[in-house]
Design brief:
Elements lengths: L2 E8 L3 E9 L4 E10 L3 E2 L2 E2 L2 H19 L5 E6 L5 E10 L8 H11 L8 E13 L2 E4 L9 E12 H13 L3 E7 H9 L2 H6 L1 E6 L4 E7 L2 E8 L3 H12 L3 H11 L12 E4 L8 E4 L4
Length: about 290
């Protein structure tokens, strides 16, 4: 039996809990639970009790399908409150054996020693590249001889209030938070190959309330961002433009929406029943 790992993805539209077993080269999925999200908007907690109930239901479904009790989990985080910056740190090297692991840790500590505004905290500090005595672009300087080690790091911060509110919801649902992980970083780990990371690629994860971005260059995270715009904004536009209730607008989006207008026939139409209208009307799918 390998190590069990649990992840909870708390989004604007749904809460997903997944249970996996870590094996030699992969993670085997044992069970999952999906529950419509309540009390979350644009990656920010709006109703603690409603979101806690949604998380609890998702966790219970995952426990039932996997056969394991869930007591702790890695939890995703996103939202417009997430910000990122780049920072450098430098330390002296005195070890005759070259750069050691503790030297990398000291350099990272120096890089993350930045002044944060009140009410913000660090989520991730990720090394982009190292330089040693002026030799730049090093991926791993371990064992190399030199005197001055520098690191360029990508620092991701979040609103302390938002983090604590999300943590409270998860823990009130009976689950201890092992760590918060930014959504696009997790997406990149799953979706990208090492070759794609090295050649340069951007991960774009469009959710219900936010769009999460992560740019990878030379195998490292180069930039991250969370934009408070998602699929629900399209639903709201359809509801306003066609005078439909939100539930029907969502159904129209899923059934008739298309990412490529050129692939939609100009002759295709569908019926709708707008607010205040006695008779249904037709809408050209190409206009949607």
């Amino acid at each position: 039996m390998g190590e069990l790992v649990v992840g909870i993805d708390i989004g604007t539209t749904k809460v997903c809990t997944i249970v996996g077993e870590v094996r030699d080269t992969d993670v085997y999925i044992l069970g999952a639970g999906i529950e419509p999200s309540r009390g979350m908007r644009k990656g920010t907690v709006m109703d603690v009790s409603a979101l806690t109930a949604a998380i609890s239901s998702s966790v219970h479904k995952a426990e039932k399908s996997s056969g394991y009790e869930i007591g702790r989990a890695f939890v995703s985080i996103a939202g417009g409150h997430v910000e990122s910056m780049n920072s450098t740190g430098a330390v002296g090297i005195s070890n005759a054996r070259g750069v050691q692991l503790n030297d990398l840790e000291r350099a990272m500590d120096a890089a993350k020693a930045v002044n944060l505004p009140h009410g913000r905290e660090v989520l991730h500090v990720i090394p982009r590249n190292y330089s040693l005595d002026g030799q730049t672009g090093l991926r791993s300087p371990l064992g190399m001889l030199g005197f001055r080690l520098e690191v360029e790091a990508h620092i991701i911060t979040a609103s302390t209030q938002s983090v604590q509110n999300l943590k409270k919801c998860v823990e009130d649902a009976g689950v201890f938070v092992d760590r918060f992980i930014l959504n696009p970083l997790a997406s990149g780990d799953v979706a990208l190959t090492p070759e794609e990371r090295a050649s340069g690629v951007m991960v774009v994860d469009i959710g219900g309330g936010t769009t999460d971005l992560a740019m990878f260059i030379d195998g490292s995270v180069w930039h991250t961002a969370v934009i408070a715009v998602g699929g629900q904004h399209i639903t709201n536009d359809i509801a306003a433009g066609l005078h439909l209730p939100a539930e029907l607008a969502e159904a129209v989006k899923l059934k008739y929406g298309h990412a490529d207008p050129k692939a939609v026939s100009q002759l295709e139409a569908f019926p709708i029943q707008p607010f205040g209208e006695d008779l249904p009307s037709k809408v050209q799918r190409a206009d949607l």
